[in-house]
């Protein structure tokens, strides 16, 4: 059973999906407590074979997450800055490396570290009224939770510079057009749609999903020619799993597979 080490993150397992709700009203900000809590939850998910996907959303109707609590940086203490940068990096890198599928159900404003959390997920569903931004430079800071890298990878250098260097805030229509999110839904519908998408993950072999995800993310760096060899090796490695045999057998027997995640 997955447990949250902090009340600032609420967890609920629904079948093969873990729902994580950021619970720091009014703006669902991140601090050292819930960032370390997120690491703990994801690490538990990686060990819990019954969890194939996770959905992360914000408590309430207005905010997915407004990012870091800026009061932490008011006195200009570099030790605090260093500690928080490490916490953001660890949390969102751990999220990005989750072995299953992660889905951000963006139910409201996603600003700064809030958007960086969504960027660390595999896919993003946004509600029509939401707005997204990385406004750190407007307060003399910069995105330190992977934002400068993940945003540029998703939307390209031009839009990443507009959002980070110019501080441009984008609405849901623009977000889906530039590839920042994959789907726009009506207000109040992001969580339901996220859970529906997570349910589809249950149709896939968990070891195959983990291998595919690792290969897709390797495309961000290195040589494509070397990746071809890695891809073929990963394909053969799946034949060491029970799910490979089950998947093929189930198809041939015209039935749904029963995955064991191994």
How is this structure best described in words?
The protein folds into 2 domains: 9-201, Alpha-Beta Complex (2-enoyl-CoA Hydratase, Chain A, domain 1), CATH 3.90.226; 206-252, Lyase 2-enoyl-coa Hydratase, Chain  A, domain 2 (Orthogonal Bundle). A hairpin with a 2-residue loop joins strand 1 (9-14) and strand 2. A 6-stranded mixed beta sheet has the order 1-2-4-7-9-12, sandwiched between helices. A 4-stranded mixed beta sheet has the order 5-8-10-11. A two-stranded parallel ribbon has the order 3-6. The chain has 10 helices and 12 strands. The protein is 44% helix and 18% strand. It has helices at residues 32-47, 78-96, 113-119, 147-155, 157-164, 172-177, 190-201, 206-218, 224-237, 242-252, and strands at 9-14, 17-22, 29-30, 53-58, 63-65, 67-68, 101-106, 109-111, 123-127, 131-133, 170-171, 183-185. The chain has 262 residues and is an alpha/beta fold. The protein is globular.
The major sheet is characterized as: 6 strands, mixed
What portion of residues belong to β-strands?
15-25%
Physical arrangement of strands within the biggest beta sheet? 1-2-4-7-9-12
Q: How many structural units, i.e. domains? A: 2
Estimate the mean pLDDT confidence: 94
The shape is globular
Contiguous runs where pLDDT drops below 50 for at least 5 residues: none
The multimeric state of the shown protein is: single chain
CATH architecture verdict of the largest domain:
Alpha-Beta Complex
CATH class of the largest domain: Alpha Beta
Q: Helical proportion?
A: 40-55%
Distance between the termini: 18 Å
Find the structural class using helix and strand composition: alpha/beta
């Amino acid at each position: 059973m997955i447990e949250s080490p902090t009340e600032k993150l609420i967890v609920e397992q629904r079948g093969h999906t873990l729902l994580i709700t950021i619970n720091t009203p009014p703006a669902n900000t991140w601090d050292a407590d819930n960032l370390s809590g997120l690491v703990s939850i994801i690490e538990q998910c990686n060990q819990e074979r019954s969890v194939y996907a996770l959905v992360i959303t914000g408590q309430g109707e207005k905010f997915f997450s407004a990012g870091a609590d800026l009061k932490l940086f008011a006195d200009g203490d570099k030790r605090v800055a260093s500690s928080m940068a490490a916490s953001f990096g660890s949390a969102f890198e751990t999220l990005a490396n989750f072995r299953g599928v992660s889905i951000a159900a963006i139910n409201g404003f996603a600003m700064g570290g809030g958007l960086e959390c969504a960027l660390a997920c595999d896919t993003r569903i946004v509600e029509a009224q939401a707005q997204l931004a990385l406004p750190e430079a407007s307060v003399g800071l910069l995105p330190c939770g992977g934002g400068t890298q993940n945003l540029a990878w998703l939307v390209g250098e031009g839009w990443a510079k507009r959002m980070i260097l110019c501080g441009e805030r984008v609405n849901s229509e623009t977000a889906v057009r530039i590839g920042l999110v994959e789907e726009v839904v009506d207000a109040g519908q992001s969580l339901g749609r996220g859970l529906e998408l997570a349910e589809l993950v249950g149709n896939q072999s968990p070891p195959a999903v983990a291998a595919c995800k690792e290969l897709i993310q390797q495309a961000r760096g290195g040589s494509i020619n070397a990746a071809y060899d890695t891809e073929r090796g990963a394909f053969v490695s799946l034949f060491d799993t029970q799910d490979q045999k089950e998947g093929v057998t189930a198809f041939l027997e015209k039935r749904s597979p029963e995955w064991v995640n191994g």
